[in-house]
Amino acid sequence: MRQGHWASLVGSISVVAAGIVVVGATPALAVPPHPGRTTIVVSPDGDDHNKGTPGKPLRTLPAAQAMARASARAGSAVTVELRDGTYRLDKPLRFTAEDSGTSAKPVTWTAAKGAHPVISGGRAVTGWTSYDAGKNIFVASVPKGQDSRQLYKNDAAAPRAAIKIARSDVTITESGMEIKNPALNYLATLPDQSRIEVESQGSFTDRYAPVQNISGTTITMQQPAWQNNNWGYDTLARPFAGGQLLLENSYAFLQEGQWYLDPAAGKLYYRAAAGEDPNGASFVLPYLESLVQIAGGYAKPVHDLTFSGIQFSHSTWLSPGSSIGYADQQNGAFIPKAYPQPADYLSSCQSGCPLFEGARNGWNQMPAAVQVAAATRVKFTDDTFSHLGQVGLGIGLDANANGAGIGLGVTETTVHHNLFTDLGGAGVVAGGVQPDAHHPSDPAMTLRDITIDNNFVTDVAKDYKEMSGILTTYVDHAVIAHNEVSNLAYDGIDTGWGWGANDAGGSQDYKNRGLYAYQPIYTTPTTLKNTEVTGNLIHGVKKVFHDGGSLYNLSANPGAVFSGNYIYDTKRTVGLYLDEGSRYVTMKNNVVQDCGVWVFTNSYGTINNTSDNVLQHNWYNSGGTQTPDAGVHNNQLIDNVQVSGTDWPAEAKQVIEQAGLEPALRTFPGVSR
């Protein structure tokens, strides 16, 4: 085929990426693609008029994407090779079915040998000058109108300006708060009051609500965020077990190491330590809310696409600072809009109420920085997800959590040997929470065969602390194997969703709560089944929230097996947790060390159908066995062994030794053994 024809073809491709909508402006291919293997080289020092060869690399990812599409169409197995450096995006990089390869000839985006390419949604901040020398506050100029909830200093998240207050300092009202502590009366004098937020940490929720204004001792909050955060369970007004309350995001709150952004003025403030000059540090302010969006259609999914050796960094998520707030319900699910509420919701709906159940099927999910939907045979290997303001990688989340506007529908996708660290939300989330996730209206929406293995997930969920390191919801055959999950405020690995309410036959508990006035009692099972959670190492978890468990399941999960996992350092909370509606789950050959409760089944009475589970041949050295009404629910405890101290038998020692990343893959700094 003649070169001129290919140049015309590529020039007609529309690419949405890196801040440019390229229509008829993509650089023409310098050479025609040909059957066989095509390597396209990209470098921050390249030129998009080049050929994409080692001697003449391209400069931008959109130009490489256009060339890769054309080469794949010509029958080539395509490798896009990224040289060392940072590739800053102006808009998310969008991959569609046009970016697909085939099983025999995949499309691979990879780091060049020895390179560490970074795909970034942030801008470097430089030029700091002294603003308030007495307090060591510095200021730098940033683009006006750019907002962010994150700032990264020397490759680590820096905290926003915040102060802790006692819950007794304020009284919660239907419209906001009344100040009771005179030391807080100065709040009424502060500028930019609508940027101030309240954060409330409960037993399993981490909530955010923005202020509207402050007059005298009356703090009026933005709606619907305030009302949505104050009904249901573990609310801001009445957290089940107390928890920290904070005021955040005002210049007046700045303490050492904290920052405040004034987007209207285009000014970023940082309070340095004594003797510190921020010009000697590296600062990046993120502005994109997602970096990569991979999404086809249910009839034409993205397929045979691999990302290897690439770092994804610098994103934010702005919704919690809007009038929506973050009315967190559990593990990244939140109420996104106003719903009818009881007039006396502050008293009548603090442990649920029928109207609250009317909102349940409308919960949204926190989006991820890297999003995958309507796709098959997508792989992430040897990548790094770091310095991101929300979930790192989202696989088949609901449509509301995907910038492409389509959700679910992911199959045969692998997440292998990646590093997830310094994230605002969870490391990996797979599956949705809305009705199409558990009873899909189109079979192609079903998530199936998702493998998450040999990843190091550490120091994540730093802003939205109620998220686990890894979460899979409604997935047919999720494999979560040989990961190390550590340093978390909440759970290590969570599977399932729905509290049994969407399982065949429904839940008497949720019938009593009034849910079925708003949804059917399903007669068929959900898509959740055959989950494998094996050989994982979970430690340093439950640092803030006592509810939940280090290894946790929710709802019926036929064929699920949790085996060979090693759990320790959990602040004496629950090790193995089978929550409401968990059924047909086998937990065996796990080692649970130094937990307050080594196993808990939420099976009180007969209304929670947490039944037909097997807990067999696990080892533990402390903590209670809490399996209420085990006989009624057919929850079987078989040959579990309590040991003294850490005098583990040989079989348990083998589990401990083999848990976590497989030996040849323990290459990340800080990984155990």
Automatic annotation (TrEMBL):
It comes from the Bacteria. It comes from Microbispora rosea. SMART domains: PbH1. This is Right handed beta helix region. SUPFAM superfamilies: Pectin lyase-like (SSF51126).
